[in-house]
Amino acid sequence: MQFSVYQQSHIGARRVNQDRMGYCFTRDALLLVLADGMGGHLHGEIAATIAMQTLSMMFQMQARPVVKKPERFLEEALTQAHRDIHAYAARHKLPDTPRTTVVVCLVQHNCALWAHCGDSRLYWLRGEQVLARTRDHSHLEYLVEKGKIAPVDAASHPDRNKLYNCLGAQTPPRIELSRQAGLQAGDVLLLCSDGLWSTVPDIDIVRKLAAMSVVQAVPELVATAVARGGARGDNTTALAIRWQGADNADANLPNVISTQMLADDQVGSTIAGAVALADPALELDPFDEDAIEKAIAEINQAIEKSSQLLK
Question: In this predicted structure, what is the pLDDT of residue 151?
Fold first, then answer.
């Protein structure tokens, strides 16, 4: 399995970066995750970190080296992340439960399957064509779908930040699953927070990723979003891969991760709190509050580690 990958996050004009992103991989499976802690609720960054860790730990336990029931895995992992957020809030007697949006994608057997809650997005691109994009779980997207407002008016609409689905709410999340998507070499999967897509039009996102490598395009897209956001700019985060295929076609391609040499029980990860090349049989507790608190401090370190994989 081969893919090139790049991820970047910028705090924007906010005091805290509540976005989290990362990826895990075995020899034959790849998990991509992005979570955007909701700023209207206390400790959104903790909710995002818990979601990341839970998904990572469950992937490490089940991908040996592939996940046998991917649809069930995504539903159960997101549901467990929701429960873990509530458990954290109860232990710490928080006045309100932290909340986060999330989008997660599992790639194996040359196919991608994704799930999301909220308005963090996934784009599946082939050249300059958008083959699929997640549907935001927002009041604004509902209005656009019903034809009550035009897409061009969405960016300035007063309801643009109203979501009806997330992890950590009082009601269980409504997990939206995609169909299996057959990938071809050169296809791009982009996961991003609303800080990116709300300021950079889809057409610009597509053109940039079609014309450049993900290593070049992701930083440029993030920088553009931050510049356009200005003094009111949101956290902006993007994680993208360019798929090269399940076969080891060329191990010498630049900036490409090849998983061929991994053993069945090895997992590589850039997610804070996860152990790179860890043994999935180890007792890794996603509920451990010390690990969660440590992960918040380590997230920037994890981003740097992911960049080192490409050198």
Answer: 63
**What pLDDT does residue 250 have?**
56
pLDDT digits 0-9 by tens, 47-66? 999 999 999 999 999 999 99
Which pLDDT value is given to residue 282?
31
pTM of this structure: 0.85
Radius of gyration of the chain (CA): 18
